[in-house]
Amino acid sequence: MARDRTDFADRIRPPAPKGAESTVARLEAALLQVAVLMERQPKFVLIFVRLEAELAAAQEAEVNGPLARAKALRDQRARKDVRRTQRSNVVALAQARS
After folding, report:
1. What is the pTM assigned to this prediction?
2. Could you tell me where the Basic and acidic residues compositional bias lies (predicted)?
């Protein structure tokens, strides 16, 4: 009796465990390990190229990703608030001298 084949392509992937996300440091370490392996076995070239691409994407996301944009927005808002406070202090000081 033949076994039924199950197609897993339409199933949803479970979430990755915490700490499993690809960070720049982990990708750099993996790239270095594959570079060492490539010296002995050139068949690791495809993995090396893929890791290079993933590292470039991770670095790009670190610089221009949503988290970086959120921090930039927060910093911009903080600078605006500081300038507003400084202006109101100058106005209060000018009114006090009058």
Report:
1. 0.52
2. 1-13
